[in-house]
From TrEMBL:
Keyword set, alphabetical order: Membrane, Transmembrane, Transmembrane helix
Gene Ontology BP term (one): vesicle-mediated transport
Record GO cellular component, one term: membrane
Main location: membrane
Organism: Arachis duranensis (Wild peanut)
Protein name (record): Probable protein cornichon homolog 2 isoform X2
Family: Belongs to the cornichon family.
Amino acid sequence: MCLADLEFDYINAYDSSSRINMVVLPEFIIQALLTSFYLVNSHWILTLLSLPYLCFNLHLYRQRKHLVDVTEIFNNLSWEKKHRLLKLIYLVFSLFLSLFWMIYNSLD
């Protein structure tokens, strides 16, 4: 939402990048905890589905590309929008898959 507001000049670049950067590290930590939770509880399929996302996050973190730069946000706006949209699609898919497995296991 911040990127769409930035694109239509409803918000300035500093506010948009600070809002996005505020949630990046907690997102990475929650993803790592969720993957480790799947691994400890022997949910192998969910672990295998969440490992690429975790590796991608680690790759971004190691290259210091996980934060949005205020000066480069307009140049990378289309990539950032695609990146955030793919993350959203993956998380919604993961949510529905987790709910499916929870309901399936509770019915057995």
